[in-house]
Amino acid sequence: MSDRPGAIEPFVPPAWESSGSRSALRITNVKTILTAPDGIRLVVVKVETNEPEIYGVGCASFTQRPLGVAAAIEQYLKPNLIGRDPNNIEDIFQVNNLSGYWRSGPVLNNALSGIDMALWDIKGKLAGMPVYQLLGGKVRKAAPVYSHASGRNFQAVEEEVLRLKEQGFRFVRCQVEVPGNATYGVDDKSTDDYPTYLRARQGIWNFSSYCRVVPRLFDYLRSRVGEELELLHDIHERLPPILAIGLARELEPFHLFFLEDPFAPEDNGYFPMLRQQTATPIAMGELFVNQAEYVPLIHNRLIDFIRCHISAIGGITPARKLASYCEFFGVRTAWHGPGDVSPIGHAVNLQLDLSSPNFGIQECFHFGDAAKAVFPGTPEIRDGYLWSNEQPGLGIDIDETLAEKFPLPEHPLNGAFPEVRQTDGTVIRW
Ligand code: GCO
Ligand code: MG
């Protein structure tokens, strides 16, 4: 016992913890790795153990707050992990989720996720099998994916759709520039200060202009590419709820596979009204961090696809529960899979995609060569599917030396999104 009054004793694992564990495996180190091989800020965790070849990797990527997540891991989770048995994934999740008292926010959930995914990676390696096997095994050969088409005008979008169709994609998300507006989801080739994918643009946003363009885009696309292709669209919480409801109704004749983020999480109360107004399938969830946000929508069958950013809800441990809960209510999975989910996060998406009977679709991202080199084992996109490499654990690693060659891009706001405002200057949800 320490003789300093009020001293906090170092962590001592509960006596039961080492009973039954195969080799008294212990966590010896937790590394937080910040890297941006595609120019997109990623946060990755590596959990090391007293058996050097047994380590795990996890994604903790919150691209707008990477430094906050790193601090949460280093200052609050890491000290509470050294010495614990990595086999006890659920207990470690519960202990670290509760140790902050206040919980269910994006920074701490991402920190928890990096650890949690790494522990599932270790569990798979100890079992000598991919994590999807631990979740019940495969229910499909691979995960069908959707890719993004965007452009400054309808013709440019059509060209990208047809190019992706040629490559075997049967699901394509379509976004078009709203002239004069800082449009979400359309690559702005005019500046290089943001990575191509996450070109969060300063500028203005006009609700009505957007509402006029989108139905015309899908009328054009359906007349040019036909009915076979599954088309998707992301509103990205950029409309007042009643306008989103109107847009969902107007898009009904174009049979979208799903319409994403019609509302901001703060406007979840509008979902019952949306459900009454249209049969356009609805996807929601990338911004959810608290189960109080998504449980009611699922329980009341108000959405069709759950789109959580798995590291933002805490990792595989909560995600596998969420996937199963959705199955009871006919809600399908469509995990968030943009460029600011690391390749490790995509490998995690894939484990759940392969083992969930209520899988819907998987968003994919075409990582660059640098990212694939930093993350050996990045899941392969082929013929419109994401494929497992059948390696134990998550089947992916990180080359720490190479990762260091891609530091986070210098930026005055360290990755925060800039403001987008209405013409009167009112800032809008991004
Ligand atoms: C999507 C998302 C992303 C987010 C990005 C924010 O559907 O993939 O909307 O494009 O905007 O992940 O950092
Ligand atoms: Mg989205």
Descriptive report:
The chain has a domain at 134-393: Enolase-like C-terminal domain (TIM Barrel, Alpha-Beta Barrel). It contains 13 helices and 15 strands. It has helices spanning 66-77, 89-98, 106-127, 131-134, 154-166, 207-225, 241-250, 271-277, 291-299, 316-328, 343-355, 369-374, 400-403; strands at 27-35, 42-49, 55-59, 143-151, 171-176, 203-204, 230-234, 258-260, 282-284, 305-306, 332-333, 362-363, 380-382, 385-387, 420-421. Strands 4, 5, 7, 8, 9, 10, 11, 12, 13 and 14 form a ten-stranded mixed beta sheet that branches. Helix 1 crosses helix 3, helix 5 (154-166) crosses helix 6 and helix 6 (207-225) runs parallel beside helix 7 (241-250). The termini are far apart. The structure holds D-gluconic acid (GCO) and magnesium ion.
